[in-house]
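INFO batch 0412 | record 1 of 1 | parsing
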Amino acid sequence: MDQLVAMKAFCRVVETGGFTSAADALDMPKATVSKIVGELEGHLRIRLLNRTTRSVQVTKEGAIYYERASVWLQQLPDIDGVFDERVKPRGRLAVHTSSWVASEVLVPALPRFQEEYPELEIELSVSDRSVHLIREGADCAIRGGELNDQALISRSLGTSRWITAASPKYLEQHGVPLHPDDLTDGHMLIHYRLARTGRPTAFRFERGDNRVAVTGKSFLSINESNSHLAAGIAGLGVLQSFEWKLRAAIQDGRLVPVLTEWTRPSHPFHILYPSNRYMSTRLRVFIDWMVKVFAELERGQQTP
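INFO prediction complete | emitting tokens
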């Protein structure tokens, strides 16, 4: 038995919740993963997993073994490189983020990161839905919005104010709204639909003590951030989003801000990683780099 391979297989079964998902992640046949984990249990003389036809449950002993083994496996690339005179982090780093952050912030900046850390391999997963980092095998995630997962450690990447906007053509056809209530009469809204719930988000406005939430009529609702922006530029309605996402389209005239005297609390961004995950050198340098990238984005924020 190759104990290192067996430890990796067992940890991935725990993280993904089953042998089928673990086999897919490890690119191994399911039967092989099951056999390897069985050999590990035989070597340790304890049962790590309780198996049924429908589920796999970690035993008390398995949870203890996973906690120790997973930390050691996460440290392994750093241990391997301890005598590397270049002191450059290396190995795989799995990152999850939304489509807009990936296409407009992270990927355009990655050439600089690659130049500084050429031995790192970034595995980027892109989706607007929130994922379970451990089950997905992700080292970290870049997320916008309020945090609600206490099992994750977060580091702030900054905040962006909200803007309501529409294309010049749309405003020419439908008029410029002067009050949030105007959006309920004669206007179409482009709702962003949360991937977590499938429900469209309301437009929210604040001015002094006034608080207004508008749902309005909608021809189109979207659960993906880049398409949400594209719909606004195409003139399909009024959209509301954070300034970082709309900035380029506003600067070149494809979108025009409206209701600028009304605001709402700024949209926060964080980089997150599991609280039980060892802070490897590769994760640390990536987080520090992302903080710098978003600081550049925040400094470039302009008032239209």
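INFO post-check: The chain has three domains: 3-80, 91-156+268-299, 162-265.
INFO record closed
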